[in-house]
Here is the input.
Amino acid sequence: QVQLVESGGGLVQAGGSLRLSCAASGSIFSFNTMGWYRQAPGKQRELVARVSSGGNLVYTDSVKGRFTISRDSPKNTVFLQMDSLKPEDTAVYYCHLSRGSWGDYWGQGTQVTVSS
Here is the structure.
């Protein structure tokens, strides 16, 4: 089993910044992908960004140039630095870890609210 604990959400004004953290523990394989998804009210959960253990990065178009994902592999932690936040970034953000065919795991979610 894998446990994911998120922190760093909150309320910020448009143009501000927040940094999310997610610490993973348990049966974490060396090869995995960690990332962040978000779900706004009435919308489907969508990928925000992910980073593989090999360092491959993927961002959704709407956050490119504003968000930066990084990971501290020895500490099994992934970060999401969110700058130039917009009201449309308001959502519950979920940490995700994929071990490929050995399973996917989700954090409990952290609320990010951007006021205009």
